[in-house]
Amino acid sequence: MSARTTFHLLDVFTPRKFGGCALALVEREREPERDEMSLIAREFAAPATAFLLPPRDPINSARLACFSPRGEELDLAPHAVIGAATVLAQSRAPEILARQSVVVAIETPGETYACEVIRNRDRVAYAQFGLGRAPIRRPAAVDAARLAQAIGLRAEDLAFAAHEPRIYDCLAPYCLAPVASRAALLRAQPVTKALAPLLGAARGLYLYAADPIEPDASIHARLFERDGTEAAASGEALAAFAGAAQEFERPSDGGHELVVEQGHGAGRPARLTLRMDVLGGALANVHIGGQTTPIASGALHP
User: What is the fold, at CATH topology level, of the domain defined by 136-286?
Assistant: First the structure.
């Protein structure tokens, strides 16, 4: 670790410190080996540790390698893309960002994403990027009565309007379940042994209610992973939720943007934005966005 290695600690999907999803963003003068990146990620133990690497195509801004807290490489972590985009825009084009939006092109193992970054009067940065795809509904049926029992709710709690439990997959499969009210949503408490078998291939259970705290929000959500742990915020689950929003709300052609609250139950309140592009009555693209807040920066000892 002889080359200089600097880092930024950020909270993503929040305009305030100690909310949203924590991210460690690491920059290195010379590209580290994969094993070394894995060790650094395990040391930070953030929900994701991302490394800013030289792009393969010089027209792009950077290449991103993401790792889990266990040091496993990830294909894509949306909050890492958002965090990296805001750091790059603020460090490389601060004068332009003070006047207008900046587009940052970030390479990931799967594809390159163009992220638009803006900064408000309070100097809080926001980034949004399109996934270039729409969620796919998985054919597996969800037993609402058993699911309700597995999270300590009644069967009638898992519904509002025309919404029903579904499994959708965009970046990863998630089980999406509507809840009648935020009060019922807050009562949910998964029993891991009962919940996991009901999820099938789904990565987690995304509960949502059309009963938000903030007046500009549309949805209040909670995400439980397969082991029952509650996640603060997840761009992957939000992308899957777009499938349910399209199926049951049937938005008209054009762009539709929603603000989603999440993370309150995990003690890390978050605000995520979801934009859905509808064309010919079908969902054509999904955009994930959020604000980032810097927490700390520094250098790793050689």
Answer: Diaminopimelate Epimerase; Chain A, domain 1 (3.10.310)
